[in-house]
Amino acid sequence: MFADRVLSGMRPTGSLHLGHYHGVLKNWVKLQQQYECLFFVADWHALTTHYGTPEIIEQNAWDMVIDWLAAGVDPSQATLFIQSKVPAHAELYLLLSMMTPLGWLERVPTYKDQQERLSEKDLSTYGFLGYPLLQSADILIYRANRVPVGEDQAPHLEFTREIARRFNHIYGKEPGFEEKAELAIKKLGSRKSKLYTELRTLYQEQGDESALEKARSLLDEQQNLSLGDQERLFGYLEGGGKMILVEPETLLTEASRMPGLDGQKMSKSYHNTISLREDPDSIRKKIRTMPTDPARVRRSDPGDPAKCPVWQFHLVYSDDKTREWVQWGCTTAGIGCLECKSPVIDMVLVEQAPMVERVREYEEDPTLVRNIIADGCERANKLAEETMRDIREAMGLSYS
Ligand code: TRP
Ligand code: SF4
After folding, report:
1. Can you tell me the distance from the alpha carbon of 354 to that of 352, in angstroms, rounded to the nearest whole number?
2. Are residues 214 and 294 part of one domain?
3. Ligand nearest 151 Cα, by number?
4. Distance between CA 208 and CA 203 in Å, rounded?
5. Which terminal Cβ of the chain has fewer Cβ within 10 Å, N or C?
6. For residues 168 and 143, is the Cβ–Cβ distance under 8 A?
7. What is the count of structural domains for the chain?
8. Atom of ligand 1 minimally distant from the CA of 144
9. Atom 7 (ligand 2): residue with closest C-alpha?
């Protein structure tokens, strides 16, 4: 009924590094070629934890968009926007809050975890408790059915599905829903209405998921059905009312294999990052001073790549031949560590070169990025409005 749509957001809390590139952005670039994609700056989400330092938000937001463009996110293929520039996210967040059980929010595993992890901040706020619900509003407002996120965000997606289900259950019921649905079935024509009824029974009585899939694609193909009837029949399959909100599916992003300079995961809080647009000299210096296998004190001491963070970089960047050379050279002390690092430096710089190239014009002329975001926000506002109309109507707010 609704076309495939991908949505994801990122909080503007610091400059992006190679971990983001390998973990998230490369995936976005791939998705934008396959699907309609919406990518946004989650500035309100950043404020839930950084409400005390608002001055970092705006500059980080612009820098982050430039980093996306550097990575190859393409504004002619994907819609890029800023959350706070689409105020309907806040409206939906408010409306959803009316029917969100407090216990659901308190039980989201990231809630207590993060509060403890970020104990230097006071996160016993209403806004922080509401974090997952704001995320639900972000997703549901575009009826996005695919959301690429890392493992850590999976509970928020599960929560979002529950909210969508609850919303449809409460507000999708219209007076005479069943009768209207039965009438809509008749409009399918005798052969298809029989098929629809059989598939619905199979799903409802035996939980047959493939029957549900078949029935959905049957409805997808119907062109002579009004949108209202089509929505009713989608909802009727699962027993409830009209399907107003779409339950999103998690597109789990594989954890990035990108290690940090010290061998731990690359992360701002470990101070072991290489930024996306870092100065080449600084990159050279950082890699040259990376720790290596501590057993190689002298050049003549053999080492073990398995104990060396540089080897992790070879796993990301090098071909088999280079890796064999490292294995041989390290274990026999045939090469020195600086020698071993040299192809890594080259490959990081080769990877970076097109990124720097792509954003040169954006760095020179800030109005270009402003315009990209202005276009994206306009489009996002339009799309959001389409869903909001249905939501307001369902919740008794369509004054006319
Ligand atoms: N919470 C997400 C994160 O920290 C960011 C985010 C906000 C998001 N809204 C979203 C991700 C909607 C996907 C969809 O990574
Ligand atoms: Fe690490 Fe390479 Fe030195 Fe071996 S030779 S310890 S893999 S940097």
Report:
1. 6
2. no
3. 1
4. 4
5. C
6. no
7. 3
8. 14
9. 305
Let me know whether 324 and 383 are in one domain. Answer: no
CA-CA distance, 136 to 142, in Å (whole number)? Answer: 10
What was the pLDDT predicted at 98?
97
Q: Which atom of ligand 2 is nearest to the CA of 329?
A: 5
Residue spans of the chain under pLDDT 70: 1, 240
Q: How far is the CA of 154 from the centre of ligand 1 (A)?
A: 10
pLDDT for the residue 117: 87
**DSSP character at residue 14:** S
> 253 and 327, same structural domain?
no
For the chain, the C-alpha Rg in angstroms (whole number) is 25
Region class of 263: left (phi > 0), else alpha (psi between -120 and 50), else beta: left
pLDDT at 56: 93
Asked whether residue 266 is domain-assigned, the answer is no
pLDDT digits (tens, 9 = 90+) for 69-86: 999 999 999 999 999 999
Conformational region of residue 283, where left means phi above 0, alpha means psi within -120 to 50, and beta covers everything else: alpha
Phi, psi of 204 (to 5 degrees): -70, -35
Q: What is the pLDDT of residue 204?
A: 85
Tell whether 67 and 168 lie within a shared domain. yes
Q: Looking at residue 1, what is its pLDDT?
A: 59
Whether residue 287 sits in one domain with residue 390? no
Q: How far is the CA of 139 from the centre of ligand 1 (A)?
A: 9
C-alpha 17 to ligand 2 mean position (Å) = 23
* Res 118: pLDDT: 87
Q: What is the DSSP string of 106-126?
A: HH-HHHHHHHHHTTTS---SH
Asked if residues 107 and 152 have their Cβ atoms less than 8 Å apart, the reply is no
| Torsion angle of the four alpha carbons 146, 152, 158, 161, in this order, in degrees rounded to the nearest 10 | -40
Q: Does residue 302 sit in the same domain as residue 372?
A: no
Position 169 scores a pLDDT of 85
Query: Do residues 38 and 147 touch, judged by C-beta distance below 8 A?
Result: no
Residue 263 belongs to some domain of the structure:
no
The answer on 252 and 390 residing in a single domain is yes
CB 195 within 8 A of CB 216: no
Domain containing residue 25: 5-172+246-257+366-394
Cβ neighbours of residue 176 closer than 8 Å, sequence gap 6 or more: none
Tell me the ligand closest to 141's alpha carbon: 1
Average pLDDT of the residues of the chain: 94
The torsion region of residue 143 among left (phi > 0), alpha (psi -120 to 50) and beta comes to left
If you measure from the C-alpha of residue 334 to the centroid of ligand 2, how many angstroms do you get, rounded to a whole number?
A: 10
